[in-house]
Amino acid sequence: MLSRLLSLIVGAPFEAAAYSTSAPAAAVRAEVATFASGCFWGTQHIFLKHFPPTPEPGKGILRTSVGYTGGNPLLKNPSYRSVCSGTTDHAEAVRIEFDPTVVSYAQLVEFFYRSHDPTTQNRQGADTGTQSRSAIFTNSEEQQQIAQRVTEEVQAKHFTPKNRKIVTEITPAGEWWDAETYHQLYLFKNPSGYQCPTHRLWW
């Protein structure tokens, strides 16, 4: 009885397994999507809240990691401090492995636009700098075409009527660097931690 009361008061302990999976790659022909939309904590958090991998079969996202990409290719293993200095040109981003038989790349791109403000240059809320830019890093020519098409559709439907223009960068993905361990799943481990106010559903 006491343990039950304590769990009600303090809440259930965070279980990383609820937001990641170790399903063998052979079981699913996973694809990779890479997005940047400001603070990578919030980007990862909102994707996983709406596409949780558990309970099985989940909603299409298999695993995620936050990290750095899109920067100076001569700079290896960038740190959070160096990326936030703006000197490396890397973006804070999330790398998503997904099952295309459950959720399509086009759906993920549309959700990416739905869950942040893609009309602000190098800024999300109070977070500013190239590391906070809105970007889609494509992993194939097909993804490049889909990202361009969905961007045009979202622009016409949601932003042209408001006289606003999407400034999202769409570019082939470069080298990926995982962020430091404490950044991974940060908002699930620290629910009261900082979250950019633009990471919400806009429509």
From TrEMBL:
What the entry lists under SUPFAM superfamilies is as follows: Peptide methionine sulfoxide reductase
Task: Give the signal peptide, or none.
Answer: 1-18
**Cited InterPro entries:** Met_Sox_Rdtase_MsrA_dom, Met_Sox_Rdtase_MsrA_sf
Name the Gene Ontology molecular function terms of this record. peptide-methionine (S)-S-oxide reductase activity
Annotated Peptide methionine sulphoxide reductase MsrA domain ranges read 33-196
Under which main EC class is this enzyme filed? oxidoreductase
Which NCBIfam families does the annotation name?
Answer: msrA
Q: Which PANTHER family match?
A: PEPTIDE METHIONINE SULFOXIDE REDUCTASE (PTHR43774), PEPTIDE METHIONINE SULFOXIDE REDUCTASE MSRA 2 (PTHR43774:SF1)
Protein name listed in UniProt: peptide-methionine (S)-S-oxide reductase
